[in-house]
Amino acid sequence: MISGLFNYWIVVILMMAGLYIVMSSGHLVKKIIGLNIFQTSVFIFFISMGKVSGGTAPILKDGFTLYSNPLTHVLILTAIVVGVATTALGLAISVRIYEAYGTVEEDEIAELDADNRQNETSVTTVAYNKK
Amino acid sequence: MLVATVVIIVKLDRLMTAVMMMGFFSLLSSCIFMILDAVDVAFTEAAVGAGASTIFFLAALAIVGHTSKKRTRQRTILPLAMVTCIGIVLIYATFDMPRFGTADAPIQQHVTPRYINDSADEVGPPNIVTSVLASYRGYDTFGEAGVVFTAFIGVLLLLGAGTRQSGLERPAPPNTQVESMRQKIILREVADLLIAPVLVFALYVQWHGDFGPGGGFQAGVIFASVIVLYALIYGIVPAQQLFPPRKLAYFPALGWLLYGGVGIVSMIKGGNFLDYGALMTDPHDGQHYGILIIELGIGITVAAVMINIFFSLSERSL
Amino acid sequence: MIEQLPAIQLLLTLIAAPICSMLRNGDRSWWLATAASWASVVVACLILNQVWGGGTISYHMGGWPPPWGIEVVIDELTAIVLLLVTLFGALVMTALRESLSTIMRHQRQSLYYTAFLLCMASLIGITITGDAFNVFVFLEISSLATYTLIARGRDRRALTAAFRYLIMGTIGATFILIAIGFMYMLTGTLNMADLAERLPAHKDNHVLHASFAFFIVGIGLKIALFPLHYWLPNAYTYAPKATTAFLAATATKVSLYVMIRFVFDVYGLEFSFQQMHLGTLLVPLSIAGILIASLTAVFQTDAKRLLAWSSVSQLGYMALGVGILNVNGLTAAITHMFNHAMMKAGLFLALATMIYRVQSSQLTALAGIGRTMPLTTGAFTVLGIGLIGVPFTAGFVSKWYLITGVLDKGWLPVAALLIVSSLMAIIYIGKMIDVMYFKPAPEEFSNAQEAPLSMLIPCWIFALLTIYFGIDTRLTAGLAGRVASNLLGGA
Questions:
Q1: What is the interface pTM, i.e. ipTM, of the complex?
Q2: Rounded CA gap, C184 and C104, in Å?
Q3: What is the pLDDT of residues A104-118, one digit of tens each?
Q4: pLDDT tens across A37-79, in order?
Q5: Which of B282, C81, C97, C332 is the most exposed place for a label (fewest CB within 10 A)?
Q6: Which residue from C160, C174, C362 is facing A124, i.e. has the nearest CB?
Q7: All structural domains of chain A with their residue ranges
Q8: Residue B86's closest chain C neighbor by CA?
Q9: Residues of B in contact with C128 (CB under 8 A)
């Protein structure tokens, strides 16, 4: 009985590790890595639940009657592509952040922003005067 | 093994290695997908997860630098607590789950049997995943191509591709380029050998999606990876001369419009949106050609988007 | 033609988007985008007309019957949200050209319109779909488009705001994906109506409990439900000008709609509220959210940030309306969803129009603007009064229902707190209006002129609609009341 759940437990551990990276890491790129791992583990979860013991890949062939669930595969195909799209956009934003701040460490960015906020009014006026 | 990989990533401060380990993680999970009978998913994960995203990460790291700072103590406790809570909820849920691999679990009962039993008659391709992806749930896939397109628009808006500092206008730094080319002679030979067969393979994957694993998404990524390989070996400038980013930027939209166009034609012919059966007098032919065309549309979109994003990211690092 | 309307509704904006990206000419893209969005307003009206009085449209994508194919379902609630998204989207789109012309080059503009159209189209997609997984797909399109729109802000903090939203949003979306996976695991279907039929049999199953928890957290992140609102103030503050108006009007509202759909229709009323005690969770949190966010708004010195905090507090009203679980409360939630979208979009748009001239959203820079830009400030004042909830404005209608709903429950203290928060709204809106009319204008802005018509007219349309819906409530509260009693009475 326990062995039937072993797979899911591993997936849970993986998901949590991914989520932990997202939350604990201060480096923006590493956050995206964590996000990737989190998502991939969810994919493994979906595929696990579609598996039928003794089944085969869902490509019709004579002589096989037991196939694993094709629907989960379709869903995960979609989700994988969504994942890579998010990754690409996230990376693009972090590249822009690097160009704007010179760093991709969260706490350093926060410091720079705090400096910014102190002379907020003067900055905006200056920006206007330049125009 | 997966767990071990992830633990290493958590510990690593060197991002380069972390990205490599992530690619490794993707490959491992693609093996797991294989074992779990999900050949299409395994294929996609290997191409997209291990291939494309790793390349994007490396291109981004080339810009933002390779190391992350040591984490401070205080940050670890709160996330750990939250993660544990969520984990407990999940574990709590697992006890009521149908056991792994059981054939009479609800998900194998309700909707799926029709896909397995009737898709050959109703849609045609022996690969059930293709039938479901392109026809039964073709609307989802249309949205999915839309996600890729949106990411493309986003990256283009944020980074620009070929408009800011076009590779064509910028002279390649001659000396270093030649130097590095000479050093890479073995790589070049290997690459020359690889490029043609991989291109053929991409086309095969594109058209063979009906029968075996594969289809537009995988083919698009494989095609893009060839170009990326070319760019890595010969430098980004020749690659951009081959595929001018300005022109390339039309293709994602064209591919997606091709997909949408099939849907609209089927509406004009009296069916619902994306009802390929309405395309031709014989619904089977209609399904067949409909799937073929939309897979082509997906392939074009995905390939063009991947190449474009790679160009945009790597252009910034020059 | 009529039976194809749902597909046309989506396709108008969705197909216009890639064409727009290929035009590479800001002006032509804008014409196309504006035409497409107004055309979809027309379609939304036709659909509303068709379902008015309780009809339901079901459309089978790809010709496959549900649950095998993907179904599109439109009822009255869907139709009103559709109208909200398309109408307010089209109004903001109309004003967008002038607003963008100062900050972006022509070629970029067409991409920006593309992202805007994609965002609108995907919100329409989320609204009309009857398939749980399809919600996830369109949610991702809308999120990616939103991150892009925010990141294009002028300030570099727009980038960090967008990044933070990206991380939070993706976690939220993945949570929703997990929730959908759990539901699928139990029932073997993804169709919402089918799920609703099959889920009650599993109501004691731990998997369903976890699914519900993950769904609420995930969608809560998207709605910016207090205390998951962390990403919202920065995202709204730094998003470029008119875009904030669109986001404030639609993105969070559509998420709220998704929540109502799932909580009432998919999980079912009995499960959500009696077994999972959603009400006892929502009510205290939303009250805390209303008060804390209003209080924060009072102390802001940046006009956009002030309005963003006010949004968090107003979202609290809607969550409270859902949480108190009676017809008046739910009517208030749905009415306020529409009314607040209208008023907040108008306010942000009027503010964007002012910023268009003075180039800053600091309150000090807006001083005295009532004299240099009287028409814009006039529209802003009308909308602000609506937001406070003065009688004969739209804001009054929704607050009236909300307070009636609370009193129906006999929760006098809660009603008192609502009045306190309305007082705070008077303070923060009053503070802005006071600055605009009665403070002397700073030297450098004293020659600011009235805004161009293409921005001014949408502002006034929002303002006039606020008054109109304060008097004629058939479309908003009338319809919301029917929907609410359906949602509650059906179970």
A1: 0.88
A2: 45
A3: 777 777 777 777 665
A4: 888 888 888 888 877 777 777 777 766 767 778 888 888 888 9
A5: B282
A6: C362
A7: 3-130
A8: C214
A9: none
